[in-house]
Amino acid sequence: MADGEETSSAVGEQPKCFDRYALTLYCMFPLTQLAAASTTAVAAMVLSGPTAPAAFLAYLVWAWCLDNSPQRGGFGLFWRLGITHRLRGAFVWRWAARYFPVSMKPTASLPASAGPYIFVCHPHGIFGISPMTHFGTDATDFTNAFPDVPVHLLGHSAIFRIPFFREWCLAHGHGSVDRKTCLTLLQKGHSIALAPGGAKESLECKPRTMRLILANRKGFAKLALRTGAALVPVLAFGENELYSTVQFEPGTLSRRIQEALQRRLGFALPLFCGRKWLPLLPKRRPVSTVVGAPLRPPPGAGAPPAGGFAVEPAQEVVAEFHKQYCQALQELFDAHKAAHGAADMQLEIV
User: Fold this and answer.
1) Measured between alpha carbons, how far is 8 from 345 in angstroms, rounded to an integer?
2) Predicted structure pTM score
């Protein structure tokens, strides 16, 4: 589909390059928010007088060394007061989702009493539009689809070192995707959403493909076995169609540079292009996300002693449960790919 032949956000409408949904997405896009946070920080330093450097340094000490909100899945007070819920349900997120549009299709019920859940999202894509929309906001009615299931979208800890942008993420209930955070939230009965392919998988993002970095990513399976949480496979058809990319073959100098930067910085630097007139923004393509049935740990796993977690599961048990998850993911993909225009696509797990 050419860039000019874009999918409308509503049936019967003519495709538009610029409408209220497009304007909203441009304003709410993560890169826009990063730019706004950086501008705010610079303006505060320049315009606030001689005390600004000391105040900014104090803020950085608090944000980087003292505040443990990223490990608690956001600001606890905001959750208790309902501020996080209202922010995630704001109409701007719904408008931004309609730009593509992004939709969610649950295939099984997820009762709160049977939680918590670990939503395992595939593929990562360039920016992870699907997990951000479904689990970072309420743009696709997650709270109605899965009542009383609080969920935290988890991302790289580097996100929470960006001045002011971190507060925006924390206000929406996001957290860092480290072991301590996952265990803390699951112990509280809160569900989490993560993309195990991470930054490395963004280097595999290519239209008309579904190549997942998953074969050796078993941490989420171990988490489920330790806590008794159910794994929920989440597949986003269309995520990889939002950007055109330049792929470098493994072993080439360019690919080694990308991988080295990914290891060093914690995020990847793929070469991509979205809209022709604004390459950083995604193309207007539908993203259809299928939420699979929960895969529960085997009986006896995740049965913690009083006040604690289950013992560390054996590697063989983790490997077997991970294999079961991959099989469930393959079955979910095969069952829904034809309905989403991907009948000839193959799921690759590497």
Assistant:
1) 24
2) 0.89
